[in-house]
Write a structure and sequence with these properties.
single chain, about 500 residues, mainly alpha, about 0% strand, globular
Length: about 500
């Protein structure tokens, strides 16, 4: 660190910062940023969007919340009664004490678990790993709760709408067009539910949030480095991923170890904002530089995926993060975005221009997919076709709702696919869950003192917004591992809100 501080570049940077701080440009941007903040605070539209709905406000005190909390915590209550009955034996056991302390630090175990799970190559991946991993975390949590009366699974923080969504997936199996095909997908949603429950329950403070965000950062680092390695080695152009008539000269799209470039890009837009949050809230120069390196490699890999929907989603995520973290930086953010355009590689710029080009076969192929999905909704609006892509594919094939050459895999739209799988109740639960969590995070960020927990909460909210924008042109749950990462970010955001509100109460 001493060599860095004594270097020419460091001194040049400090001089430039000092010159910028005294410049007219800085004063102009500060005034413009202050005006933006005042407009945000006085906006009636934003007040309506950010206020908590009546259902969400009533959830924590509701009979349903208390009932579900009691049911979910029944094993913990029984274990606690067993501990009280045999307290001398447990207190005198070294291994029992070790299990109790490890369970109390479940968030640390989860950070290591996601590091291990999310770097397994697709060729060696099994979706049972996620279910077994989070089931083990729940068992570990129960061990930590055994001697503690207040350490319990937190259903209140999960929220009403996610409970509706997770309940609807069971109904989607029951009323599925192909129940046997849907049953397998039920376990993916159970894994996601376990991820949400253990995350919001295990996080107790800012350090837990940092650890979990760092676990996601390891996934970004390893997958991005492998993506860059793929580019160096050379990636063969897969014409099923890109229309070469309108993307002439575009290189092959890297996919790292996620089997598909779009899937890899979706993982990055979910986790890169968390890495950026670590940059902003790191206390030490070494950790900040490390996070900067991870973020730079991740952005480079995201560009190499040539995933247009994910690029738009990432741009939206960065805009939301700036908006929530420091609104006065919005003018500077816009100026930097404009200045970056001339420096974009020609292949990336040409790829961006094809987003709304009807001649692009990838863009045009989505129209019959959307039409087929809308026909499913028209045919079965309440129950949908059934949980999972397999049941939907069978429904569409048997009713002859899809008319295109390429096979129907999924609707290539997050919202449509959730509706045609889980019906109107699942769609309402999904949309309500996203809106509820994003609104709570935004409201907390606007009314919370600056802290690392606030920064990570802003990042989680931004990642969800980016995923929702990306979901307009793709289905992020097509790969169960990405579904788990999605719900991890969702849960981390909800846990961040809980931590921020706890900090506000103690001040």
């Amino acid at each position: 660190m001493t060599l860095l501080r004594e270097s020419y570049l460091y001194h040049l940077w400090t001089v430039l910062c000092a010159v910028y701080g005294d410049s007219a440009v800085h004063r102009c941007l500060v005034r413009l940023g202050g005006w933006c903040s005042r407009q945000i605070d006085s906006s009636r539209l934003l007040r309506v969007l950010c206020r908590e709905g009546a259902v969400a406000r009533a959830w924590e005190a509701s009979a349903l919340c208390r009932l579900l909390t009691a049911i979910v915590n029944l094993p913990v209550w029984l274990l606690h009664r067993l501990y009280l009955a045999l307290r001398p034996a447990f207190d005198g056991s070294f291994f029992a004490g070790l299990a109790f302390e490890m369970g109390h630090e479940t968030a640390i175990a989860q950070s290591w678990l996601i590091m291990l799970l999310w770097v397994i190559p697709f060729s060696r991946w099994n979706n049972a790993y996620t279910l077994l991993g989070f089931a083990a975390l729940l068992v570990l949590f129960c061990a930590g709760a055994m001697p503690r009366e207040r350490f319990r699974l937190d259903v209140r923080t999960v929220g009403f709408y996610p409970v509706v969504l997770f309940g609807s997936v069971f109904l989607a199996v029951l009323f599925s067009y192909e129940p046997s095909a849907s049953f397998r997908f039920l376990f993916y949603h159970i894994s996601a539910a376990a991820c949400v429950l253990v995350t919001v329950s295990a996080v107790r403070g800012t350090e837990d949030l940092k650890r979990l965000a760092a676990g996601g950062g390891v996934c970004v680092l390893v997958s991005s480095l492998y993506g860059v390695y793929q580019r160096i080695q050379g990636v063969e152009v897969n014409e099923s991923y890109v229309d070469m008539t309108v993307n002439a000269g575009m290189p092959g799209r890297v996919e790292s170890y996620f089997d598909n470039p779009n899937t890899f890009a979706e993982v990055l837009i979910l986790l890169l904002p968390l890495v950026l949050a670590l940059i902003l809230c790191s206390r030490h120069v070494a950790s900040r530089l490390m996070a900067c390196g991870v973020f730079a490699v991740g952005v480079l890999a995201l560009g190499m995926t040539y995933s247009r929907a994910s690029w738009v989603g990432m741009a939206c995520a960065m805009a939301v993060l700036v908006f929530l973290w420091k609104p006065k930086l919005i003018p500077l953010f816009i100026a930097l975005c404009v200045l970056m355009v001339p420096f974009l590689p020609s292949t990336i710029w040409n790829r961006v221009l094809t987003i709304f080009n009807p001649a692009d076969s990838s863009t045009a192929s989505r129209i019959p997919l959307y039409q087929a999905a809308l026909e499913v909704i028209r045919t079965s609006p309440v129950s949908g076709a059934g949980l999972g892509t397999a049941a939907v594919q069978d429904f569409i094939r048997d009713y002859n709702l899809y008319h295109a050459e390429a096979p129907f895999v999924h609707a290539h739209n997050f919202y449509l696919q959730v509706w045609i799988e889980a019906g109107i109740l699942g769609f309402a639960g999904f949309f309500g869950s996203m809106l509820w969590n994003i609104k709570r995070a935004a409201h907390t960020a606007r009314h919370c003192a600056p802290s690392a927990a606030r920064t990570i909460t802003c990042a989680g909210c931004a990642a969800l917004c980016g995923a929702m924008v990306c979901g307009l042109a793709d289905y992020l749950w097509n790969y169960p591992r990405v579904m788990c990462i999605f719900w991890f970010v969702f849960a981390l955001t909800a846990a961040g809100v809980k931590v921020c509100r706890g900090l506000a109460e103690t001040d």
